[in-house]
Structures are given as structure tokens and as C-alpha cells.
Amino acid sequence: MIYVVLNLVIAVFAVGLAFYIDRRSAENVDSPLTTMSVYLAVAALSMAFMLWANFSSSDRLPLLFFRIMMIALTVYSLDFCIYCILFPSYNRPVTVKIVKWALVLVSVWFVFTQITSITITDFLGISVDSKPLFTGWLTNYFPVTWFEVFRGLILVGVPGLSVLIMILRAENREDRLNMQKSVMNLLALVAGWIAFWVIGQAQGRVPMFASLVLTGIAVIQVILAYNSYQNFLYDFKYALGIVVTFVACYLLPAFVVGISFPRLWPEFAQSKPLFFFEIAVVIVVCITISYQISKFLSKKQYFRSFQYAEVFEEQLSKLDYSEEPEKIVQDLKNIFIHNLGLSQMHIFVESENILKTIYEPEDGTEMTLDIKNNVFDAMLNQGRSVVLKSQVDNGHLFERIKGDLLKVFASTGSEALILLSEGRRIVGLITLGQKAGGNIYADYDFNTFTKLYSYFFVFGYYMRNIANQAIVGTVNREIRMSSQIITSIQENMDPVKNPRYDTGYMMEHAHNIGGEFVDLIRLSDTRHIFVLGDLSGKGISASMSMVIIKSIIRTFLQETRDFKLLVEKVNSFIRFNLPKGTFFEGLFALIDFNDDTMYYINCGVPALFLYTKSYNNVIEIQGEGRVLGFAKDIGKFLKVKKVKLSPGDIVVTCTDGLIDSKSLRGEVYGKERIQHSITDSTTSTAQVMARTMYGSALDFLAKGFDDDVSILVIKRLAGRL
């Protein structure tokens, strides 16, 4: 019965593997490995039923299940051959399908005509009666049966020939990755053959081990599936690193524990607690030493895992932007070199419509690229910030400009491009050379770079606006940066064009630059987002954070239109990407012009007023809010509220710079004066209302503001439907 269970386990495993492969496969692409796993499951299930039927009945049911198992095994073998011969293509020509199913019909004829009976006993194992291949005197020289020949063909002969064809075809291609995969497919078959041999040797002692022959097929299938998703090249040093790591971290500790167990076993009879204590100490010591060795080796280039994303992100998050620009650039390069083993790396920043390399070595030459190159335009049009040379060589996404892209790769000596942009405005470019061991950039790298793009953007924006001496001079740097920030804000505003609404805003910095901003973002003709924000800090640091946040909000809106999720992602970005201690106070609002409903999330805005024309009164509607940047998971604290806007209603929000300002006598301006200012200017346009509130506060103070002031006014115009 144990062999029935083991074959059922193989069947369940094969079904799970089929689901796993199908989930990992590209969209609208049917992987042949999925079908192969299903046939393996059918074969294992038939083997289990055959064994069960043999021990529970005496009729011909076991023979029927054996025949079904052989047919499923034949289909698997044919699919394996087709997979290897046509590798790496998944396309199956009609002629191939016809030949395959013709051979399947031949196998059906064979198992029902040439296999006459089957005997299963604990002493003999599985014995198959089949007609001899030859009759007469040839039988003396070739004493084989049809079953033995058939089994040899589907398990050894035809798969071996197909793998040979695959290797020969791979040698005619320059695709190193697929050549490696072809070799790994060969190794998968060899591993399966080794499993068959081991099972054959075990049959000599335990004849029923013959029922586990499908374990060899399972080994082949697992390696094929694993190999199909490996998108990096192995090299000798890295392979040696894997062996050394395995021996040092796993094999030796296991050996020590294994040796210690029999040596300590005599103490079990004398004192069980002492025995368990001693063996526990040995295990803990071995695990601790193994962990320390693994931790040490992971820092070495050829012992680290290809799955570098977690360490990569951690190191990027620790970049110190208070250092000198040259030091920051070198730190970034060191991070890339440590994780990818780059041969070279270039960092370009935009200057007067030209991309120029910055802080090149003394023996290096400055490189320039035209920012109007149609390669960059195509990347912006497709919304792709990361492009790999391997994608261009083997894909069709950039077929129209493939030649131009390859020229960019060749001129920069790179195999990966990371374009840094704010909307359609290019900030910079990072080009990455060949990886360690000549490895190529593949899907894992693409997904990692895409996921961590915000870190690269922060770096690029800083380099362009702070560190690049060609853009920002050493004299009056903060003043020039102030102008750039204000211009950036103005250019990226999307004015409301709905005739039923009027908007106005004021942004005044107490010291030329600051972290406050107002943004209007158009989602569609009927939906608009309004953001008022105040980022902590002063001067150039706050200004940089403000511009980055403003840009990243628009970037996130390309990924999601979920209002609450947008705010959650902004919170995560502030917490993990901006300088430690940065926080955001403000308001996110979305107005649906179809039904005049405003949805809003209070993120610590000090005041949100609603003037209702029907009551000629101003009320506060902000409620309790949560400042962004502190909590790791802020979703459970955020509340989306809504308010219906009627004709003549006005929404006003502002930062604490307006509310908390004090006059020369120390009197606070306060919310009450703002409410009076709103009531007194309801007939004015939204822009005039914002200026009136600012002017009224300025008159009250009788001096300049000590803090930044931002005001946003949204009017639902009366008399317009």
C-alpha cells in the first residue's frame, strides 16, 4: 500500500507543478511544460490505481491501468522530444502535431496488442508479458521483447536523440542564455536516467521499487520547469561558489550532527534529558556556525545569491545625500558593483537638452547624448523607464527603433538603460555595463530596476538640480533652485476646464524656497485631483523633497486610480525613499464633476473650510487626519470622506503658515479671521479670494510671514448646471 501512496504523492506533486508553471507562464502563452506535468500526473495516478487494483481484485483491471500509464508516458515522452527539438519556441506547427498524435495512435495499438499480461508481486515486483521482438533463430541472439524495446525508445532513445538535436541547433545561435538552458535540459534528462538507474539497482533488493519508476520522470520535469525560469548565465566561479557554500553551510554541519548522534546515543540509556540537551547544543552550534559562514560568504561576489533585490534596496535607501556629490555618485556605483558586478556604469544628467556624463574618472572621456534622440521619445511614449539589451535582441517592443537602440547600447558600452524622467521631461540616464561573468540582464533585473525606480529618480533629480555644476552654480545656488522649483510646479499644473468650477491658489515661501506646494491633476474630463502639501524641513532639502513628491504622485497615478491606495503609496515613498524624518501634512481631494461630489483624505491639514451658500456660513470639515511618513502601514488609519457641493459652495484649505502667523503684538491670525475673509469675498473669483486672504493676513501681521503659506480655493459656480 505504501507504493500506492507514493505514486499518489507523485501525481499530486505533478498537478501542483502544472498549476505553478501555468501561473508563472507569460500572459496568453500556453507552456508545453504545463501539459507535460498533467500527463505525468495521469501516469502516476494510473500506476497507483494499477497497484491498488492488483491487491484488491484479480481481474484484468491492473492491465488496463498499466496500458493507460504507458500511453500517458508515451505522450509525455513525445512532448519532451518536441519541447527540446523546437526549444526555445513554444509554437507547434500543424505537421508536428499530426506526427505526434499519429505516434500516439501507434503506441495505443502497441500497448493493446503487444502487451499481453502483467504480474505484480512483492517477490517479483512488476513483470510485464510481451511478445518477443524476433521469432525463430534470431531470438537466440536478440532475446528482447516488444515492451523492452518500446520502453527503451520512450525513456532513452527518442529523448536522447531530441536533446542531441537541441544542442546542435543551439550551437548555431549566439543566444548564450538559451544555449545554457539547452545544456540544462540535457542535464535534466541525464538526471532522470540516473534516477532510473538507481531505481533499477534498488529493484535487486526490493522488487516493488519498480513501481517508483516515475520518480525519474518527476526529476526531469522539475529541472525543466526550474530551468525555464532561470534568466541569468552561470559561470565557473559562481558554480564553484554554490558548491563551496553548500558544503560549508549545509553538508559539513549535517555531517557533524550525524556523527555526533551515534557518539552521544549511549548516554540515552543513562540520562535522556542529558542526551537531548547535548544533541540540542550540537545542533544549535552547527546552525549558528552555518549561519555566520553563510552571512560571510554572501558578501563575496561569487558566493552571493542572484536574488539581490532586498539587499540592493536596503543599500539604496541608505544613500547619504548630505555628502559631496562625487561621494554620492561613487557610493551609488559601489552599490551597483556589489550587487551586479558591473564592468562599467555611466550616469548622465540633462543640461541644455544634452545628456552629459558626470564625475567620470580622470582617464575617462565625457560622453554626451542628444536628449531628442527618438529612442528616448519611444521609451517615454511606451512608459518604459527600463530597457534591457536582451529585450531588444529577443523581443518586439522596440522593433521600429531596434537599430537606434542598439546604437545607444554600443556607444555607451552598456546592456541596460534606466531613463529618469519627470512626466515627459528627461532628468537623466543611467547606463549599466556587462554583469559579472558576462551574465546578461534578464527579467529579474528588469523587475528589480522597475520596482526600485523611485530611488534612481531621487538620485537623478538630486544630481541634475543640486550636484551638477553645469546647471546649478556655486553662487546663489538656493535662489536659482527656487526658480527651478517654482517653474516646475507651474508647468505641471493641470488647470480645471470644467465651466461649473473655478479654482485659485497661492504659494508664497518665506525664504525663497520651501516644502509647500499645490497641485492640480486631471484624471479625465469629469474627475480632477487636488493636492495641498507641506513637507517638513526648510530650504533646499525641503524643496527637493517637495518636487520629488509632486512628481511621484503623478507617477503613481499611472499605476493606480484607487484614491486611497494612491495616498498609501505616497506614504510608503516618503517613509522609505526620502531623508529620514521627512513627513507630509496636507490634503488629497478628488472631485467628480458628474455628481458634484468631493472625496477627500485629510493628511494632517490644519484647516479645511466649506462655505455653503444656502446657509451663508463657513464650517470646518477636515476632521481628524494622519500625517504621512511616520506609520509603515497607514491604510487602516486613512478615511475617505465626501461632501456634496451645491451651486455657490466654496472649499478653502490652507497650511499652518497662514493660521499660526503672529502679528508684532504676538496675536495669532487664527481660523476665525480666515472664515470672515471667505464670507466677505464669496462674489470674487477663486484666484482673487486666495489673494485676498493672503493680503488680509499680511495687513494683520504688519510684517512678512515667518513661514511658508499655501492656499487652495475651489468654487462650485452658482447658476450653472
The biggest sheet, with number of strands, parallel, antiparallel or mixed sense and barrel status, is: 6 strands, antiparallel
Helix content: 40-55%
Task: List the domain count as a whole number.
Answer: 4
The span between the termini is 79 Å
Summarize the structure in words.
Mean pLDDT is 82; it is low at 469-483. The chain has 721 residues and is of the alpha+beta class. It has four domains: 2-228, Rhodopsin 7-helix transmembrane proteins (Rhopdopsin 7-helix transmembrane proteins, Up-down Bundle); 236-298; 311-467, GAF domain (Beta-Lactamase), CATH 3.30.450; 493-716, PPM-type phosphatase domain (Phosphatase 2c, domain 1, 4-Layer Sandwich). It contains 24 helices and 18 strands. The strands form four sheets. The chain has a six-stranded antiparallel sheet, sandwiched between helices. The chain has a five-stranded antiparallel sheet with strand order 9-18-17-14-15. α9 runs antiparallel to α11, α12 (309-317) packs antiparallel against α13 and α23 crosses α24. β14 and β15 (617-620) form a beta hairpin.
Question: What features would you highlight for this structure?
Answer:
721 residues; alpha+beta; Rhopdopsin 7-helix transmembrane proteins; Beta-Lactamase; 5-stranded antiparallel β-sheet; 24 helices; elongated
Summed up:
53% of the residues lie in helices and 16% in strands. The longest helix has 29 residues, at 236-264.
Helix-strand layout with pairing:
Layout: H1 2-24, H2 32-56, H3 61-86, H4 94-113, E1 115-121, E2 125-130, H5 138-141, H6 146-171, H7 176-203, H8 214-228, H9 236-264, H10 266-270, H11 272-298, H12 309-317, H13 325-340, E3 345-351, E4 354-357, E5 368-370, H14 374-382, E6 386-388, H15 389-394, H16 402-412, E7 416-422, E8 425-432, H17 443-451, H18 453-467, H19 477-491, E9 501-508, E10 516-524, E11 527-535, H20 539-559, H21 563-577, E12 584-592, E13 597-603, E14 607-612, E15 617-620, E16 641-644, E17 650-654, H22 656-659, H23 670-680, H24 686-701, E18 709-716
Antiparallel strand pairs: 1-2, 3-4, 3-8, 4-5, 6-7, 7-8, 9-18, 10-11, 11-12, 12-13, 13-16, 14-15, 14-17, 17-18
